[in-house]
Amino acid sequence: MTPRDPNTLANYGDWAVRHTTVDFKVNFEKRRLEGSVLLELESLTDRGSREIVLDTNRLAISSVRLDSSDSEWAVRDRVEPFGAPLHVSVPDGASRGDIVKLNITLETTEHCVGLQWMTPAQTGNKKHPYVYSQCQAILARSIFPCQDTPDVKSTFTFNIASPLPVVASGVPVHTDIKGGSDAGDKLFRFEQKVPIPSYLFALASGDLATAPIGRRSVVVTGPEALEEAKWELEEDMDKFLEVAEKLVFDYQWGQYNVLVLPPSFAYGGMENPIYTFATPTILSGDRQNVDVIAHELSHSWSGNLVGCASWEHFWLNEGWTTYLERRINAVIHGEPQFDFSAIIGWKSLEDSVSLFGADHEFTKLIISHKGVDPEDAFSSVPYEKGFHFLYYLDRLVGREHFDKFIPHYFRTWARKSLDSFEFKQTFLDFFEKYGNAEVNEKIAQIPWDEKFYKPGLPPKPNFNTAYVDSCLELAEKWKNEDYQPNPSDVESFSANQTIVFLQAVQDFSSPLSVERAHLLGTTYSISASKNVDLKTAYYVISLRSGDRQEFPGIVELLSSIGRMKFVRPLYRGLYKADRNLALETFQKNKDFYPSTTKGQLEKDLGLK
Prior knowledge:
By secondary structure, the chain is an alpha+beta fold. It has 3 domains: 15-204, Immunoglobulin-like, CATH 2.60.40; 211-453, Neutral Protease Domain 2 (Neutral Protease, domain 2), CATH 1.10.390; 469-604, Serine Threonine Protein Phosphatase 5, Tetratricopeptide repeat. 36% of the residues lie in helices and 21% in strands. The chain has helices at residues 226-234, 237-247, 291-298, 315-333, 336-356, 381-397, 399-412, 420-434, 437-443, 448-453, 469-478, 495-506, 514-523, 532-545, 551-558, 564-577, 579-589, 595-604, and strands at 15-27, 32-43, 51-56, 60-66, 69-70, 73-75, 84-89, 99-107, 115-118, 130-133, 154-162, 166-168, 171-176, 186-196, 203-205, 209-214, 217-221, 257-260, 269-270, 275-278, 306-308, 416-418. It has an 8-stranded mixed sheet, with no helix packed on it. It has a 5-stranded mixed sheet with strand order 16-17-18-20-19, with helices on one face. A hairpin with a 2-residue loop joins strand 4 and strand 5.
């Protein structure tokens, strides 16, 4: 195969990893993973490839054995931002279909960007250390040598020794209390029999407790947060699964579990198979933020089972997942919920396009990643612009017909990776055989190149505003300086409706006065809420107005969470309002944030 991923240094056109076994000890004292990885690679060439090239990033490699024999190997010069390639000699070559076994002894280093090590003080109950991985997009190579591309999928075996409980992106099959390499260690084993790309490698170890939240699901988190997490998730978990299976087809992974991480986690959720890694900001006490789980569950089909071939086609993961998430929530919460969520997402898309610039490469559906760290392109664009392309196709052919395409698409590409052009061909082939002349006449008019490559915002649909009108009406009242608010204004609102109201206020051509901004927060008791989405939306208004009374609360929030959705807009706003306070807050908390969050904040604050 011809490599089509510009973000890897591996020669995966010559070799493909078929199975990966990791044997790691979690060393909390040294903040290292120590052990080995065994890669079973299949030759893809007829000419007999004599070299294997793998991705690495600041690993300490001590030995490499090929089929049980010492092998000639070298880590070559770094190629920023992709790390340093590991070259391994295959003296006798290998013909197409041959399997070789590569056993690499290694440990991670203090420069490992794929692991977040936490002191006891950084955890919920402050009793034990904690470590978790975050490998998307190209961070797996900082944990073990691999073909760090979504274009290659491998089955996995995890053997993890740790003094504390472990979860990993596989089905738990064994725990040996005496099996650890040191006294007090336990050996935790997991099997992942569905092939996954390297970025879905995941593990976490810490003071973890477990509770059931559904017929096929448990929640795992710190003991101090277990009951809260159970309450937040148990009402919807089985519903999410049932609706998703009707929309696509049966869930393929056996278990669907949720690990609620400590608060520094960079994302709302990470779709690691079997165990979604989730932000604790979903624990808002009102079940208003569990839609994050509907999104991550949808990744079980979109992204995990069927995934993009490179990060240039990331919309195939996130656009599909956002579409499925909204279809699921429309069944559970009512059809207007689909458009309501899309309206919130449209605001997020507008913000991203405004931040990049309407003509920026990163506002296209298909983007160029040559020489680019995929993290630099991360935004809501692949989520929301990808969603709008699929929603456009849905409306074009009709929901009845599009719903027949959905399972066909996922069955066709199950356990494989594809690019946008293969998606296009799959869509065209399906509807050509579908045999509906009226539908095919419409499909013939699709401007594919425009949809794939035109930067900026797509055409805005006519949304159903049933859940939004009252929110926007309240915002209009706030344009009048004489309007006297009352807590009853928002009593009938869901938290997400209040967020729509706050987003509308954010978009006022002129910011509220300091006094009016503060009145908004106190009247509606927003800064006292446990819902971080709500607080962030309000704090953006406060920062734009220059309400210094809210600065302590903003700094406190920035010191307690690492989710980029919240901390990036708050830091940008704080930087404009009080540059010194923004920089001081970042310096105090930079070691609390994971590498992904820290790197993006350094750019936002002009430090990188």
